[in-house]
Amino acid sequence: MNNQYLIPANTKKGQLILGIFRPFDLILFGIGIFVTVLLLAIMPLSSTLVTVIVLSPAIITGFLVMPVPNYHNMLNVIMEAYDFLTSRQMYRWKGWCYKNVKKYKRK
Questions:
Q1: pLDDT at 53
Q2: Nearest of 65, 64, 45 to residue 55 by alpha carbon
Q3: Please, is 54 exposed, middle or buried when counting C-beta atoms within 10 Å of its C-beta (0-12, 13-18, 19+)?
Q4: How far is it, in rounded angstroms, from Cα 13 to Cα 24?
Q5: Is residue 73 classed as helix, strand or coil in its secondary structure?
Q6: Cα 30 to Cα 51: distance, rounded to the nearest angstrom
Q7: Which of 20, 65, 76, 82 could form a disulfide with 72 if both were Cys (CB 3.0 to 4.6 A apart)?
């Protein structure tokens, strides 16, 4: 092989459907499309506002499963941001010298 190594660039991509979607992503997008088609059959599209409301489930779920660099998709970005904002932001030191701290009195 002349010291040439073949290393896959992204091994997780092979576990995804079409290299992009998880099964949950496709189910979520399918539900959004189904609700949109159902609303298109039921609602009369007489105004622009009604049309936007009817198309919004497909647009919102399409936005959530849209791929984003450095993350999987927008749903993942939103979940990570929520987790960051709702978790504790002040971390207490518990390193190797945590128990060895002596209390000094001021003179």
A1: 93
A2: 45
A3: buried
A4: 15
A5: strand
A6: 19
A7: 76
More confident residue, 6 or 86: 86
Q: Copy the structure tokens of residue 35.
A: 């609700």
What is the model's pLDDT at position 59?
95
> What span, in angstroms and rounded, lies between the C-alpha atoms of 60 and 75?
10
pTM recorded for the entire structure: 0.65
32, burial (CB in 10 Å: exposed 0-12, middle 13-18, buried 19+) = buried
Listing DSSP states for 17-62 in one string gives BTTTB-HHHHHHHHHHHHHHHHHHHHS---SHHHHHHHHHHHHHHH
Structure confidence at residue 18 (pLDDT): 80
The HSE-up count of residue 1 (CA atoms within 13 Å, CB side) is 4
* Separation of alpha carbons 73 and 75, rounded Å: 5
Q: What is the pLDDT of residues 13-69, one digit of tens each?
A: 667 778 788 899 999 999 999 999 999 999 998 999 999 999 999 999 999 998 888
